[in-house]
Design goal:
Length: 280
């Protein structure tokens, strides 16, 4: 199988991945190639794809595969999480994310019965007090009817609802924003493969622990020493000791059971007991 993988690595290095100049980009481009030929690469298997990745990089760097074999013998896998401390914002349940709700006063019609005339469009004549006559003579104002067109609604029987705008009113739950801030925090989950002794040692020592594995700054500084196999954007409520902009290792292993995502990235199952140390 190794010879087959090395021939495949050489072909990919010279064709599909010829212009790629860093290992992370090799992986990204390799996933794109695999997505177009899923059946073949799924049959090849996840562990062989990892070897293929390092053989491609070795051949591109040296024209040989010895460096790839050495890296493969040194790799380990880890899952790390980090948060920047941003609260997770979700769509408002009350208004469905619209920012407004139907007015419960006018039931969304934007108008209500006139309060002055009780929705009749008429009011008692002020001149004759509704009698139709003044001093025995027909009232000039209402022509003897005893009523007049309502001055409040102009005879329309209804007026615009004062509680809303066009039948809708601002949602009180989200103040019209359409979303609400929760007590949960946004965080990222990195599935990595690394050959760096420093990263491996830190992950192994701090796996599932309250101790910080490394800062986000150091994680970024060491980006040439690992490959992000899969990245998830998630949200949860954290334990109080979890600090922003720090990396925590939830899982560390030399022999993970690897799986393909829909887009042919690779991931592995994390230690569920370990993740509970960080998530409320």
């Amino acid at each position: 199988m190794s010879d087959k993988l090395k021939r495949l690595a050489q072909n990919l290095s010279e064709l599909s991945l010829a212009e790629v100049d860093n290992l992370q980009e090799v992986y990204i481009r390799l996933c794109a190639v695999m997505s177009n030929q899923k059946e073949y690469f799924e049959h090849l298997g996840t562990s062989n794809v990892i070897k293929l990745l390092f053989y491609i990089w070795s051949y591109k760097q040296t024209g040989q595969f010895e460096m790839g074999d050495k890296m493969i013998n040194q790799i380990a896998f880890a899952i790390l999480i980090t948060t920047e401390g941003n609260n997770y914002v979700e769509s408002c349940d009350e208004c469905g994310g619209d920012g407004y709700i139907r007015c419960d006063v006018c039931d969304g019609t934007s108008s209500v019965d006139c309060g002055e005339c009780d929705g009749t469009g008429e009011e008692k004549c002020y001149q004759c007090d509704g009698e139709g006559t003044v001093d025995g003579e027909t009232c000039d104002e209402c022509e003897g009817t005893g009523s007049m067109t309502c001055t409040n609604c102009g005879g329309e029987e209804s007026i615009s609802c004062s509680e809303c705008d066009g039948g809708d009113k601002t949602c009180d739950t989200c103040d019209g924003n359409g979303d609400v801030q929760t007590d949960e925090y946004e965080y990222k989950k990195y599935y990595i493969v690394t050959w760096s002794k420093l990263i491996k040692d830190r992950c192994e020592i701090t796996e599932g622990d309250t101790d910080i594995t490394m800062s986000e700054y150091d994680f970024d500084r060491l980006r040439e020493k690992y490959v992000v196999l899969h990245l998830e954007d998630l949200h949860d409520e954290f334990q109080e000791y979890v600090q922003s902009n720090e990396m925590y290792c939830t899982t560390y292993t030399d022999t993970p059971r690897l799986y393909f995502t829909q887009h042919m990235e690779q991931y592995f199952k994390e230690d569920r007991d370990s993740i509970k140390n960080y998530i409320v």
